[in-house]
């Protein structure tokens, strides 16, 4: 995801870092190890800055466009596929309105969070490299641990959700070809377990890439794929609406007593589904947990928060437009029968080859998005372990295997993580419910509460001042929404579990 392209003539070797060419020779910078396993650059003379930023790290080269691509990669994910279903629960009035409100909240709180990247002066202050670093600098105390647990549990959940989503898309490819061959009357059921294992093996391989610096290309590919399948879903929705001769759906969403493919809708189901829809929409917009990591790739001047503000406007504008189009056209096409996953719920059967392309694009995107979200978690565990066991060769030693640097702890830990997320995905393959839970669990604390509290601390906003009261009211409103969405999603899981057998997932 996070692109720091190495266009500068810098290279790292065992004896130090060679910086640029000056009068036909290399200027060498000595590298000394820190206690936590990182390297600290000691400059031999004043004013060398071709290869290093103000914190001694290699020059950042990110721009508005790279940051926008990273955000779009993170935001336009599998969540877009559930938006037609979400709007179907809320209706033509509440559905799009809620989506726009979420977009405005995300935009506002993202700008607050971006101003916490540096502590003190927004241009020259000390950098915070991760979300947790920002919380530690601005809030400190037990809130750092609370933030860490929420953030990394959310990242774990995203990995599980993406594994489930990818397997559903792979099964959908098999089923669409089956429908094409045998007709739509054949149920063409297939197990998703084998596809989860395939996705897990792929992620084991990609997870061995040490850090974001070396997977920037994966982010670009993922962004292209996300636009591809979103555009296909939108096109199929428009075609279906034209074929129907008009828009389906109602102002208030699916009505009590309506007969759907899943059965008759009760009053209780209507309430839980409406609440779950809020979680689905929240999940579709969530990217705050990696915003600081994205911002840490940006070059300066101008100040990083200014560049990030432009990227946020562009990316949220693009994604909201896509979301409204995909969600609304999907609901318009199928009405009360809008599927939980627009491209795999088989509201569409033809053209089957176009559905195959869309689902392949989803899988490719999710391969990259999985790494986008998991790399911060990988880096956190590895940094903590290196600090805890600095003398352990198993933890800190790098072995050269051709041009690749192999670390045994990284190999074991990342492989184990992918294996665990794959097994959990096989145990609980409920796409819509998992999406809703993730959205509800991470939205308020990570997207609203911590950014607001850090901003208040950073700007020293007086308690009970009009601005302080306004920010707290926004936080309280979002907390209520998150609790309601969580209740709806957990109720959905309970209902699904009544007819579910572990490791026997058939779609």
UniProtKB/TrEMBL annotation:
<dbReference type="InterPro" id="IPR013057">
    <property type="entry name" value="AA_transpt_TM"/>
</dbReference>
<feature type="transmembrane region" description="Helical">
    <location>
        <begin position="411"/>
        <end position="431"/>
    </location>
</feature>
<feature type="transmembrane region" description="Helical">
    <location>
        <begin position="64"/>
        <end position="84"/>
    </location>
</feature>
<keyword id="KW-1133">Transmembrane helix</keyword>
<dbReference type="GO" id="GO:0006865">
    <property type="term" value="P:amino acid transport"/>
</dbReference>
<dbReference type="GO" id="GO:0015293">
    <property type="term" value="F:symporter activity"/>
</dbReference>
<keyword id="KW-0472">Membrane</keyword>
<feature type="transmembrane region" description="Helical">
    <location>
        <begin position="352"/>
        <end position="373"/>
    </location>
</feature>
<keyword id="KW-0813">Transport</keyword>
<feature type="transmembrane region" description="Helical">
    <location>
        <begin position="468"/>
        <end position="495"/>
    </location>
</feature>
<feature type="domain" description="Amino acid transporter transmembrane">
    <location>
        <begin position="60"/>
        <end position="494"/>
    </location>
</feature>
<dbReference type="Pfam" id="PF01490">
    <property type="entry name" value="Aa_trans"/>
</dbReference>
<dbReference type="GO" id="GO:0005886">
    <property type="term" value="C:plasma membrane"/>
</dbReference>
<feature type="transmembrane region" description="Helical">
    <location>
        <begin position="90"/>
        <end position="108"/>
    </location>
</feature>
<keyword id="KW-0812">Transmembrane</keyword>
<protein>
    <submittedName>
        <fullName>Amino acid permease 2</fullName>
    </submittedName>
</protein>
<feature type="transmembrane region" description="Helical">
    <location>
        <begin position="216"/>
        <end position="238"/>
    </location>
</feature>
<keyword id="KW-0029">Amino-acid transport</keyword>
<keyword id="KW-0769">Symport</keyword>
<feature type="transmembrane region" description="Helical">
    <location>
        <begin position="152"/>
        <end position="173"/>
    </location>
</feature>
<comment type="similarity">
    <text>Belongs to the amino acid/polyamine transporter 2 family. Amino acid/auxin permease (AAAP) (TC 2.A.18.2) subfamily.</text>
</comment>
<feature type="transmembrane region" description="Helical">
    <location>
        <begin position="437"/>
        <end position="456"/>
    </location>
</feature>
<keyword id="KW-1003">Cell membrane</keyword>
<feature type="transmembrane region" description="Helical">
    <location>
        <begin position="313"/>
        <end position="332"/>
    </location>
</feature>
């Amino acid at each position: 995801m996070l692109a720091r392209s190495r266009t500068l003539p810098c290279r790292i070797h065992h004896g130090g870092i060679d910086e640029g060419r000056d009068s036909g020779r290399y200027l060498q910078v000595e590298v000394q190890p820190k206690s936590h396993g990182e390297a600290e650059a000691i400059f031999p003379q004043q004013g060398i800055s071709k290869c290093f930023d103000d914190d001694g790290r290699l020059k950042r080269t990110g721009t508005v466009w790279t940051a926008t691509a990273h955000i779009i990669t993170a935001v336009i994910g599998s969540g877009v596929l559930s938006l037609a279903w979400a709007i179907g629960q809320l209706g033509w009035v509440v559905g799009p309105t809620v989506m726009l409100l979420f977009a405005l909240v995300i935009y506002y709180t993202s700008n607050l969070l971006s101003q916490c990247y540096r502590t003190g002066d927004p241009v020259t202050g000390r950098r915070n490299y991760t979300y947790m670093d920002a919380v530690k600098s601005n809030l400190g105390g037990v809130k750092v641990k609370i933030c860490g647990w929420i953030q990394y549990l959310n990242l774990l959940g995203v990995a599980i959700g993406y594994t489930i989503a990818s397997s559903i898309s792979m099964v959908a490819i098999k089923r669409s070809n089956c429908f094409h061959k045998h007709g739509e009357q054949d149920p063409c059921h297939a197990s998703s377990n084998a596809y989860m294992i395939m996705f897990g093996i792929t992620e084991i391989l990609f997870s061995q890439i040490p850090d974001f610096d070396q997977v920037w290309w994966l982010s670009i590919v993922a962004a292209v794929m996300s636009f591809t399948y979103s555009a296909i879903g939108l096109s199929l929705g428009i075609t279906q609406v034209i074929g129907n001769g008009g828009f389906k759906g109602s102002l208030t969403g699916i009505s009590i007593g309506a007969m759907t493919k899943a059965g008759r809708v009760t009053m209780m189901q209507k309430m839980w589904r409406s609440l779950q829809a809020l979680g689905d929409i929240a999940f579709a917009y969530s990217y705050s947990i990696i915003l600081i990591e994205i911002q840490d790739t940006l070059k300066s001047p101008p100040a990083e928060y200014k560049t990030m503000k432009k990227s946020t406007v562009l990316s949220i504008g693009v994604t909201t437009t896509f979301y409204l189009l995909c969600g609304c056209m999907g609901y318009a096409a199928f009405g009360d029968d809008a599927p939980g996953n627009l491209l795999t719920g088989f509201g569409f059967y033809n053209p089957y080859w176009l559905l195959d392309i869309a689902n392949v694009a989803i899988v490719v995107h999710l391969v990259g998005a999985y790494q986008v979200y998991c790399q911060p978690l990988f880096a956190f565990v590895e940094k903590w372990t290196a600090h805890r066991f600095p003398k352990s060769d198993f933890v800190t030693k790098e072995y050269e295997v051709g041009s690749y640097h192999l670390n045994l702890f990284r190999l074991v830990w990342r492989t184990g993580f992918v294996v665990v997320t794959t097994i959990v995905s096989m145990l609980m393959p409920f796409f819509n419910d998992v999406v809703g839970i993730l959205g509800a669990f991470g939205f308020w604390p990570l997207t609203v509460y911590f950014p607001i509290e850090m901003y208040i601390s950073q700007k020293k906003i007086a308690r009970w001042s009009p601005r302080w009261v306004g920010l707290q009211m926004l936080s309280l409103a979002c907390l209520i929404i998150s609790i309601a969405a969580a209740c709806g999603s957990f109720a959905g899981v309970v209902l699904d579990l009544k007819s579910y057998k572990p490791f026997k997932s058939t779609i």
